[in-house]
Amino acid sequence: MVSSIHTNSAAMSALQVLNKTNSELETTQNRVASGYQVSGARDDASVFSVAQNMRGDIGALGAVQTSLNRANSIVDVALAGGEAISDLMIELREKALAASDPSISAVSRSAYDEDFKSIIEQINTIIGDATFDGANLIDGSLTNGISFIADIDVADQITLDTEDLSFGGSIITFPATSSLGTATLSSGLVSTIDTALNNVNAALARMGATANRIDTHVNFVTKLNDSLEVGVGNLVDADLSKESARLQALQVKQQLGVQALSIANQNSQTILSLFQN
Predict the structure, then answer these.
(1) What is the pTM of this model?
(2) Secondary element (H or E) of residue 148
């Protein structure tokens, strides 16, 4: 090898090795600090692109979950109201049946009538209060139901159908002004209330089936979201056990590189000794 004070090939070679080691050490330190093997497009453009697309899907699924959770809350409130109404309809039927007895006194009939009207008022209050986030499924205010997004492409929707439980409607057919003033009126209301009770229970069954569908879809979306997050992790997460071992090895390699560069830089001093007597 030619000895020269202008060109120190050994030092140049040692410096190249040291620079490469420093670059690898910086990459490994970034992986340990961030927890990512691929934290940007510079690390791996294709993997980063795939991961970003999957992150976009995860964000969209979050919006789907929010929509479905709102649907769940709306139908839960409606079901709670409907179940309370069903219980009160049973009480109405009992009052009407008791008031249909021609042998009871006018005072007793009046008491039954007052209880009957009080229960009707209570049902009206429940119907009006069964609202969540401005949506009420049982007061007849929504004629076409409410639709919620069910997938990230907005190609599929889940619709909550309304069930009008207000008095004088298609489910509770008798009016809120009904009275037990006479045995005849009371007797006529017994079968009407019985039919209305069956209608209310059928409406509850339909709402319950929709609620079960929403629950099933929420569980599916949650599992899909978890699977996508695991997939992103498999693509971009760093193996910290492996990176820790690599970090220690590179630190030793860096120290050796510094020593090798120091030795190579002493070549000029060796040349100087050749000219000494």
Answers:
(1) 0.76
(2) strand 146-149
